[in-house]
Amino acid sequence: MAVSTPSDRTLRHRLRRLLADNPVVLKELRGRMRGARAFIVLTIYLGLLGAFSSLIYVAVSESATRVSGQVNVGEIGRTLFGGVVAIEMLLVSFIAPAFTSGAISGEREHQTYDLLRTTLLPSHSLVWGKLVSALSFVLLLLLAAIPLQSIAFFFGGVAETEVILSFVILTATALLFSTIGLYFSARSSRTLSASVLTYALATFIMFGLPIVLGSVLWIIEPSLDNIQSVQAERAVIYALGVIISTNPAATALMSQYILVNQRTTGTFAYTLNNGQDMTLISPWVPFTVLYVLLTVVFFVLAVRRVRVIEE
Fold first, then answer.
1. What are 125-175's pLDDT values in tens digits?
2. Is the Cβ–Cβ distance between 270 and 278 less than 8 Å?
3. pLDDT tens digits, 185-239
4. Which residue in 226, 18, 268, 260 sits closest to 122, CA to CA?
5. Are 237 and 196 in contact (CB under 8 A)?
6. Among 153, 154, 107, which Cα is nearest to 126's?
7. Where are the domains of the chain?
8. Phi/psi at 208 (nearest 5 deg)?
9. How far apart (Å, rounded) are the C-alpha atoms in residues 24 and 155?
10. What angle do the packed helices 209-224 and 248-262 form, to 10 degrees?
11. Which of 33, 198, 235, 263 is deepest in the core (most CB within 10 A)?
12. How far is CA 94 from CA 4, 30, 132, 195, in A?
């Protein structure tokens, strides 16, 4: 029989205070799940994923049949999994900010913010409660889509590790975008302006950074083979790694490529032009660290903004 230590009881007590004992978390979750909106969003979300998965399967199957006359089930599995993750990332990136961009500004518009602030709830608990309630529903969407991702296992070519990595990347993306929405919601007096600012930044992260990444690769790639200095080549490789780790789509693609070709999820070897090997970290690791740090930064900024509003 396992005996709980004082440290375990202290940890459970702190988690309970952060989650179950936060009235904002309970209020938001009960209000969201009581109505039909949450189930409609979940149904539409899974319906879109299922429809796109069917289209991807039909397109890949017909394309493989026309080219080679036979179907490579492993290729279908990898393409289907990648397509589902890509669509899921796109949907989550725009659904997550929708739950937080009006979390605080909406309270002011409905004239309930002053009533909420008359309680003894501190600013960080208010922001934390709004974030946890929104992120809980986003995690529900991610967990509900795992069976669709798992369909790729019937075709082969996909490992369980890829599902775990995709879930980590999607969770980190949803966490950052939710916190960005909270910050702009605390910063703006209107939900419309908060939503515009949130989606502008989210669109830049999702689409602007890949354009910058592609431009940098297009400029650097021809000259990369001609670099003679080992230090210069190392600097270029590190710079490309940083650029990749700032975008969730690029991180997912590169992490999957490294996992498939080098069979590793941590460090891998890269051969320089002079034949030397350098050890690099898979992009999902710095990506997760970067997005968690940015989440903390935006969370602190949101808390400070709420305190400024109170003053």
1. 888 888 888 888 888 888 888 888 887 777 777 778 888 888 899 999 999
2. yes
3. 988 888 888 899 999 998 888 888 778 767 876 776 666 556 566 777 777 788 7
4. 18
5. no
6. 107
7. 22-310
8. -70, -45
9. 44
10. 50
11. 198
12. 42, 23, 17, 10
Closest to 213 in 3D by CA, of 298, 163, 287, 162:
287
Pairing of strands 267-271, 277-281: antiparallel
Grouping H, G, I as helix, E, B as strand and the rest as coil, residue 247 is coil
Q: Which residue intervals of the chain are DSSP H helices?
A: 6-18, 23-34, 37-68, 73-100, 105-109, 113-117, 123-144, 146-150, 152-155, 160-187, 191-203, 209-224, 230-244, 248-262, 284-310
Read off the tokens for 237.
Answer: 């490789």
Of the candidates 24, 41, 23, the one whose C-alpha atom is nearest the C-alpha of residue 107 is: 24
Q: What would the DSSP string read from start to end of 54-112?
A: HHHHHHHHHHHHHHHSS--HHHHHHHHHHHHHHHHHHHHHHHHHHHHTTTTHHHHHTT-
CA angle 79, 81, 82 (to 5 degrees): 65
- Tell me the torsion sign for CA atoms 183, 188, 193, 195: positive
Structure tokens at 62: 């017909």
Q: Which two tokens stand for residue 210?
A: 């890949």
For residue 124, count other CB atoms closer than 10 A to its CB. Answer: 15
Look-up of token digits 């702009």: 184
If you search the block for the tokens 């003894």, which residue do you land on?
120
Q: How far apart are CA 287 and CA 279, in angstroms?
A: 17
Paired strand residues for 280? 268
State how far the alpha carbon of 37 is from the alpha carbons of 11, 31, 52, 179, 282, in Å. Answer: 34, 10, 22, 22, 38
Q: What is the pTM of this model?
A: 0.83
